[in-house]
Design a protein that fits this description.
It is a single chain. The chain contains 8 helices and 28 strands. The chain is mainly beta. Strand 26 and strand 27 form a beta hairpin. The longest helix has 11 residues. The protein is elongated and about 90 Å long.
């Protein structure tokens, strides 16, 4: 996918037993990668999701964005890591507190805890100078032409206006103590007539927008041409701000023109203007999660959309980072940030080793080919005594995710977990079973309403083993954000549940379903949107039914990584379109799951 580079703004220019029910699909297709929504040309009000705005999402909301390497995601918010939790490999950096830190991540972690200790420069601290930013030729202290003095540079220099945008301006104002960033990059500045004559050079500056100081941005030197203008900024103050009917209210209290919301640029400074979008203006790219990012971030080799759609379908055509030219005056800390991210622990989940990356195409499930070996390596059977009444999902380590109504803590000695099982009558090769050590049922599970219908099963370690080795099993990833998938996405259900007309099924079955928006219309006063998910087909031909409970509803992101999006919970009248299956929404229970199994086991991102 090739996308045009963004031209930055220039200064001075304008049922409790329901699981796979019927399983009689129409012609089934392979799971498709999520389609990337294009940018939209429509009215500004149409671009903003007002229901989403009530959530007050910001750059620290890890349900919408990735945390920085020096942060971790706890209960939906990016919080500071302790310095020792950062990777140890890196280059020494100096802080404005006069201390040297072994890595940039450790310095940023310390700054996160104590905001006064900002980044100064790469390398050990010396007495060779300080970074300084100031404003000149404005009517007040909050506006003017931006002038900087770099560490180890003798003179102050102005910043060139080309490549200067609200992204850089917000960082500059934050550096100057204006906590809400910049109001604009245009203003009435009083240039001395001989300013250009006395200045032969200016600086280009490149920032990502999360920096707390311009010293973290990359500076390169440029020789001034006769037409060159200098970058200016008007920092945000209550006096300078105007409240109008067409203004957008940022979460941090800042007001910006409505036309700047959902444009791909972080005008608010806390990113709240780009996190609840139904479309993007031309400068932006709309992530499936409803976030607008700059188009220049697409196919640049770094995942910025939480579902990975900005790096999907790139066909190897990755954009190159801004190259450090010979006149580069400062270290590229953005490159260092990316390197630190590459050192963070990675999980192996949701990606199959089998040749079957997705189930093969087939006309029917009932009466057709059974699931093949390796197609669903996260599917398990929960066996009670000599019967299999429920399914489950392997999520890593010794842990299985299932429905609360499937298990009882008092029956722990009666359960077994069977993996790699295809036929529950004619046992196939490769089956592994484990005894159960512990059953954890959600403390707020309500058997009458099926709210919080979720449970964890811990398998016993085999004798003499320190880990639960699960041959031929691969864990499904546990979603941390409810925005990874959305209504109409195609997902898969699987299990040994009853077929249509209550017929028994002995071979693992699967079927494709679509996520359904707002199931309250099907189950009034019984469907709880935050805790439950609906899925089915238009004709009801594919559904979950009795015996499938606790089994997985899995979805694949843009990079074919599989997440357990739902656990089969309840429904009515298997196989009827007006009664879709209801699933426990796993993303809502990420923190509950991580509390019991340990965050490093399931945290694919934001750890």
């Amino acid at each position: 996918m090739k996308l045009a580079h963004v031209t930055l703004l220039l200064l001075c220019s304008h049922l409790s037993f329901c699981t796979i029910r019927d399983l009689k699909p129409k012609e089934e297709e392979k799971i498709k990668k999520p389609e990337v929504t294009s940018t939209l040309d429509t009215s500004q009000n149409d671009l903003v999701d007002k229901k989403c705005l009530t959530k007050n999402y910001t750059h620290l909301s890890c349900k919408k964005v990735f945390c920085q390497p020096w942060q971790k995601c706890i209960e939906g918010t990016c919080i500071c890591k302790l310095p020792y939790q950062c990777p140890r490999n890196g280059t020494t950096v100096c802080s404005t507190n006069g201390k040297s830190y072994p890595t940039y991540c450790q310095q940023k972690s310390f700054e996160c805890l104590r905001p006064g200790a900002k980044f100064l420069n790469r390398g050990a601290c010396t007495a060779n100078g300080r970074f300084n930013v100031s404003l000149k030729y404005g009517n007040r202290d909050s506006e003017g032409i931006v002038e900087v003095k770099l560490v180890n540079q003798d003179k102050k220099m102005f910043i060139c206006d080309n490549r200067w945008s609200i992204t850089q301006a917000n960082v500059a104002c934050l550096d100057l103590g204006f906590q809400q960033g910049a109001l604009d990059i245009k203003g009435r500045f009083h240039f001395p007539e001989d300013l250009h004559l006395n200045s032969t050079e200016c600086l280009h500056v490149h920032c990502r927008g999360f920096e707390s100081s311009l010293s973290e941005c990359t500076f390169t030197k440029k020789i001034i041409r006769s037409y060159q203008r200098f970058a200016g900024v008007v920092c945000y103050t209550q006096d300078a701000a105007t409240s109008t009917n067409d203004s957008f209210q940022c979460v941090n209290g800042k007001r910006i023109p409505q036309k700047r919301a959902c444009n791909g640029f972080n005008d608010c400074g806390d990113q709240s203007d780009e996190l609840c979008c139904t479309g993007c203006q031309r400068n932006g790219f709309l992530c499936r999660s409803g976030v607008c990012i700059p188009r220049e971030y697409v196919c640049n080799g770094e995942v910025d959309c939480i579902a990975g759609d900005d790096e999907a379908n790139c066909n190897g055509d990755k954009r190159h980072e801004i190259k450090e030219e010979p006149e580069t005056l400062t270290a590229n800390m953005d490159t260092e940030r990316k390197r630190i991210k590459s050192l963070l622990p990675k999980l192996s989940c949701g990606v199959k080793n089998s040749v079957h990356s997705v189930p093969v195409r087939r006309k029917r499930v009932v009466g057709g080919k059974p699931a093949e070996k390796g197609e669903f390596p996260w599917q398990v059977a929960v066996r009670e005594d000599d019967k299999i009444n429920c399914g489950g999902v392997y999520i890593g380590g010794c842990w299985i995710l299932t429905a609360a109504h499937c298990v009882r803590a008092s029956k722990v000695h009666r359960y077994q977990i069977w993996t790699s099982l295809l036929d529950r009558v004619k046992y196939n090769r490769g089956i592994v079973f484990r005894y159960v050590n512990k059953v954890i049922i959600h403390e707020n599970y309500n058997g009458a309403t099926y709210q919080n219908d979720i449970a964890l099963i811990e398998m016993k370690l085999p004798a003499g083993r320190k880990e639960c080795e699960m041959p031929n099993s691969i864990p499904a990833c546990v979603p941390w954000s409810p925005y990874l998938f959305k209504p109409n996405d195609t997902c898969i259900i699987s299990g040994w549940g009853r077929d249509k007309d209550n017929e028994k099924v002995y071979v693992l079955q699967w079927g494709q379903v679509h996520l359904i928006n707002n199931c309250s219309k099907f189950y009034p006063d019984r469907y709880f949107e935050n805790e439950m998910e609906c899925a089915g087909t238009e004709d009801g031909s594919i559904d979950a039914c009795k015996g499938d409970s606790g089994g997985p509803l899995v979805c694949q992101d843009a990079n074919n990584v599989t997440y357990v999006w739902g656990v089969v919970s309840w429904g009515e009248q298997c196989g009827k379109s007006e009664f879709p299956g209801v699933y426990t929404k796993v993303a809502n229970y990420f923190d509950w799951i991580s509390y019991h199994v340990g965050r490093p086991l399931i945290s694919q991102y934001n750890i």
